[in-house]
Structure formats: C-alpha cells, structure tokens
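Task card 7
Instruction: Convert sequence to structure tokens.
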Amino acid sequence: MGGQLNPNDPSKAHTHHMYFRVDLDIDGFSRDLFEEFEHHSFNDPGGDSWMTIGTQGKRLAAPDRARKWRIRDAASTSQLGAFRGYEIEIPQLAARDGYSTGDIWATIYRGDSVQQGGDVGVAAPTDEVLEKVYCQGPLDTVNGNDVVFWVAVHAHHDPRHLAEEATFLPYHYAEFSITPRGFEVFRDRRRED
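Output:
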C-alpha cells in the first residue's frame, strides 16, 4: 500500500485497514467449513477447541484467547485422519474502529457477475457492504459450502512528515498467515549407521 499523506494536515496520524479476499478450495470447492479456535486453559490439555461456525458474518480477534480460524474440508483427511485445511492467523498493529469493525468475515461464493467484493469500501469507507450484502445467511456445518473469507489487517500510521515521508510515502506492508494443515504425514527417513 502506498500513497501520500493527508494534504490538509500531513502530521495527522491515522489507521490503515487493508482487506484481503481469499477463496481456498480444498479437494473441491463446495465442502469447506469455517472454524474458530479458542484457547481456554493451560491446566486442561483438552481445553483448547475448534468450533464450526454456522452463520456467515464477522468474527473478532482475541489475542488473550489465542483466537485463530480455519477453513477445512468437510471430508478430506490425511493418512492419519487429520482434516485437510488452512489455519488463518491475523496479527493486528492497530484496533478496530468505526471504519473497520471486524477482523475476519466468512461468507460464501455467489458467482457474482462482477468480482465479488469489488464494492467493499467504495460507497462508504467502511465494511458496511460486508455486513449487509455478503455476510447473510447460514453456513452448512455438515456438508460445507464454497467459503470465501475476508481478512482486515489494521495498522496505525504515525506520519514522519518532517523526515522520511516529507517527499513521498514509502510503501507500508501488512500481513497475515495462512498455514496448511493435515495434508501430509512426514516421517523421519534418516539412515541409521
């Protein structure tokens, strides 16, 4: 992301909300489940849990609960029975606000004639379109859907208008991670001498 500082007041701090639309298809496109992870207790080894989400909508990050998300196939597993899928972790460098009210949204692919989501943040600089247009209705928690998710990465920008950013705004990079899980079992094949 790049651009220029606020021309009316280049010293004004602000927040960037960068949206990413991701459609992961695992062994086909119609059997995806959307799940949320919660850490509950270090004293209970079984206390951590994955919960299948049954409605389209907004989800919030919770670092105190080690919250993360997963898109997984409803049926496809590894050789040892782990479901194939991708875990999504979202490090945030700023908080949600009136412009961006969530961290991840789960919806389904609708085959729109235009690129689905091309209107997010256009009519109003908010996530209102995600809430009122795309994230409506249930998710099939047994057979799955063609799940599409949106990630918002929030980052605070403290302008350096009297130094590095006086002439131009360097690019700002923000990221989140998508990690494959359950696709392969690796075995140690070292020779023993």
